[in-house]
Predict the structure.
Amino acid sequence: MKEDSIIDLIDDENLENALALREKYIENAALPKKTVIFRVMKRSLAACLAILFLMIPASALLMKELSPNGYKPPDNTEIKTSFKELNDILGAEHLYNRLPEEYAYSLKILYSDGFSALNSHTTWGSNLAVNGLTDISTPKVPQSAEILQEYPNGDRLRLLLRLNVDDRRFYTGDAYTEICGVTVHLAFAENEQSARFFYQGNTYCLELKSETTDITYYLELLLEEQK
Amino acid sequence: MQEYTASDENIIALYFDRDENAITLTDQKYRKYLFVIAYNIVSDTEDSEECLSDTYYQTWNAIPPHRPKNLRAFLTRITRRLALDILRKRNAGKRIPDEYLTSLHELDETLSLPADSDSDALAKTLNDFLRKLPEKTRCIFVSRYYCADSVETIAHYMKMSESAVYKNLQHTKKALKKALEKEGFQL
């Protein structure tokens, strides 16, 4: 490896300007798009055209069954254990394409007994912003969780998560966790963990299980309408 | 729970007062940002954490007497240098190439300079060149080659296609190469 690169010679002024702009872009990427109204108009237009020209009564019936998230949840809530099954439920489109941008999702971590440990909200598409953490002092339940980095990659949402448990930090590994993708790779820093994704009700769930401490966490991705 | 975010001026003032809350507030405000900078280079969570701890330690030792004009840039420089140190130590091992090495390789493909180049003159040419660039282009260049952000990540937060980011980088590198050659650097 080369010891130094020309980029290391950048001066403070150029570096500061570029970093400030970089942060501005990252923050803006986390905000809901300003074109929501236009998208709503486009959707309305598409709906009108569908009604006027296609005149399929079933369409109206189907619309009534659509969930607030814009897709119809499956009838059964049976736990699905693989992405293939998840994608089969969703059909051709993947999770990323199904997530409307005007919705935020929340990351909810539950203890194995179902006790809600914390709830953190972030905006879809944001890189670094996470807030709304709720502290819980119960031992072995994560006191906090952070999304260290996230961004969509094609049809995948990639997250690097950190869970803080009893002053120790668990990560979703050196590799990114791919919430919706074919391959899931989780390698925790401290304990070997098994992980699986499943879909339950209206929620995409990531179950992280520690094989050494017998602790199971559930991370739920919930869609919530942006205020 | 909303965390209090202190201003950089207040944080620097605490360093000058030798108040350890300075480190706590620095951590609160910049942890996630610095972690990504370190992680982009070392691709390892524990090493990234070590970079952050050392960054805070070195910052504590540096301020005072140093008073950074921009705390973010100051911390970034330290974190990046520490992450590169870890990468160099680890270089003998057969680790998977990370984003930093990929970005460095990209830059070296176009701008391979002799080791005995005049670094002062090189720095002046580079910084004059960067100052003349449009803001967005400069940001893309620094994000890719200083922060080691992936093209995919840059495309996401800049709301551009990956190919547009890639073309922008290619164009900037070629223009920088021309600027360096004009100043007599042998590439």
